[in-house]
UniProtKB/TrEMBL annotation:
Species this chain originates from: Micromonospora palomenae
Record's protein name: Mannosylglycerate hydrolase MGH1-like glycoside hydrolase domain-containing protein
Any Pfam family the entry gives: MGH1-like_GH
GO biological process, one term: protein N-linked glycosylation
Disordered, as annotated region: 1-35
Domain Mannosylglycerate hydrolase MGH1-like glycoside hydrolase, residue spans: 66-459
Keywords, sorted A to Z: Glycosidase, Hydrolase
Superkingdom of origin organism: Bacteria
Record-stated family: Belongs to the glycosyl hydrolase 63 family.
SUPFAM superfamilies on file: Six-hairpin glycosidases
Entry-linked PANTHER family: MANNOSYL-OLIGOSACCHARIDE GLUCOSIDASE
GO molecular function, a single term: Glc3Man9GlcNAc2 oligosaccharide glucosidase activity
């Protein structure tokens, strides 16, 4: 979750010899299936969680920690809603894109005007989107999140294709294209074909160790936070959340961007945080594959999307893959160096169906190493950071705990790259997370105990998709 994709058919254009829309999987050792009654209980829990978090035209991630609408949360939520409440799935996406900015950016938060001022930090009064050119009438943040929305739209349509879903795609398609143009245009700060994130919150993995080095250069003092009241630590253990110093730097980065009214002009000359993120750009490439499939439904030309997808994958490999470590790393544009931390971000390019075989094999080796522990039989959940690293923290947010969305993305990537044995092991681990810890925001990477917010929407949603696609 950021304060502040898709199955194989949503990630490319594979043959139609698999009911999921992807290539037929080769034989592998399946993980032991859970009892049918147990799976039915999990499904009921997931549906109840999503129903409880529905807020008239969108789903809140959580009633306590996150009472507004979040961007990539809504994409993940729509994927699960497609299995049980398809009308709500489309409404989820339409509500989010109704708040799209004129330049194409999709804000990472759309604020609910019915909530009292000060009920969430940083709230609309802090972001001040109304002062920015091209901002929508609704109050929003000024930053974005990984563009997983095209994959979500395709998966929602594929779940139950109809004239109504085709109409929804026709409405969304130009807006999804505008989102891509914004990210591949104004955000190509490095000029090499990748989008730069301007805040750790844009990665979705807020306080990942991947951001420690770039964040260290951001001038801020923990005293900055005395002017504000954090709401997250009122609802979750402070030991599980980013530190006050991290938050002071988050505030400083937002202030830098906000004070220039969220302009992307000459970012390299003044903005304190600029990073090319593997997950963000893998999602950017996967979105083009999904848009090629959507284009075929709405009567547009899929060719340009396939061409852009190929260019993004090539740039991702060229810019962010390290042949020495055999994994992908963020590139800090301030220093033009790869960040050395080995995190789950490095595994995320597996969602790209056209990732070259050399990189697929290397990333699978990384995923199956002691750092992450992916296996056909997984004794422990998949962590978000290298288990062997000295800064591995099993309780603190993105610095070690297991999250359903990164697991789900990797699971989809494994299926797309013909590793049903590993996909089955990861799926059973995902089901075990919720069976042990409930629909929590994230989980202890050793015990699967629930951490963060309870009754978390994307955990419930992606659980539904995992159950349906098993």
């Amino acid at each position: 979750m950021s304060t502040g994709a898709a199955g194989p058919s949503g990630l490319g254009a594979p043959p139609a010899d698999d009911p999921d829309g992807g290539p037929a999987p080769r034989a592998g050792a399946p993980a032991r299936p859970a009892p049918a009654g147990h799976l039915a209980d999990l499904r009921r829990l997931a549906i109840a969680t999503l129903d409880a978090n529905w807020e008239h035209d969108h789903t809140v991630p959580s009633r306590t920690l996150y009472p507004h609408q979040w961007s990539w949360d809504s994409a993940f939520i729509a994927i699960g809603l497609a299995h049980v409440r398809p009308d709500r799935a489309w409404r989820e996406l339409r509500t989010l894109f109704a708040a799209q900015w004129a330049d194409g950016r999709v804000p990472h938060i759309v604020f609910n005007p019915a909530l009292r001022v000060g009920s969430y930090f940083p709230g609309p009064e802090f972001w001040g989107s109304a002062t920015a050119e091209g901002a929508p009438p609704a109050a929003t943040s000024g930053i974005v999140q990984p563009p997983v929305h095209a994959q979500a739209a395709w998966l929602v349509h594929r779940r139950a294709p109809s004239e109504a879903s085709a109409r929804a795609l026709r409405w969304l398609y130009p807006r999804l294209v505008a989102q891509q143009h914004y990210l591949t245009g104004r955000r190509d700060v490095g000029g090499a074909g990748l989008a730069a994130i301007v805040h750790p919150w844009e990665s979705g993995l807020d306080n990942s160790p991947a951001w420690d080095a770039p964040m260290a250069a951001v001038p801020a003092d923990a005293a900055v936070m005395r002017a504000y009241r954090r709401h997250d630590t009122a609802h979750a253990d402070a030991a599980h959340r980013p530190t006050d110093l991290d938050y002071a730097r988050y505030v400083a980065i937002v202030a830098s961007y906000r004070d220039r009214r969220y302009t992307d002009q000459a970012l390299a000359g003044w903005h304190p945080f600029l990073v090319e993120c593997p997950l963000f750009n893998a999602a950017l490439g996967a979105a083009e594959h999904a848009l090629a499939r959507i284009a075929a439904v709405v009567g547009a030309d899929p060719g340009p999307h396939r061409d852009r997808a190929a260019r993004i994958t090539e740039a991702l490999v060229r810019r962010l893959y390290d042949p020495v470590t055999g994994t992908f790393h963020p590139r800090d544009l301030r220093t033009d160096r790869l960040v050395p931390a080995r995190t789950v971000l490095g595994l995320m390019p597996l969602i790209l169906p056209d990732l070259p075989g050399r990189q697929v094999r290397a990333v699978l080796t990384e995923a199956c190493s002691v750092r992450f522990g992916l296996a056909p039989r997984m004794p422990r959940p998949l962590p978000t950071h290298d288990r062997s690293a000295p800064d591995f923290e099993p309780l603190r947010y993105w610095r070690g705990p297991s999250w359903m969305n990164t697991n789900w993305l990797l699971w989809r990537g494994l299926r797309a790259h013909h590793r049903p044995d590993l996909a089955a092991g990861l799926r059973e681990s995902m089901l075990a997370l919720v069976a042990t810890g409930g629909c929590h925001e994230y989980f202890h990477p050793d015990t699967a105990a629930g951490l963060g917010s309870a009754a978390f929407s994307w955990t419930a949603s992606l659980l539904l998709d995992t159950l349906a696609e098993g």
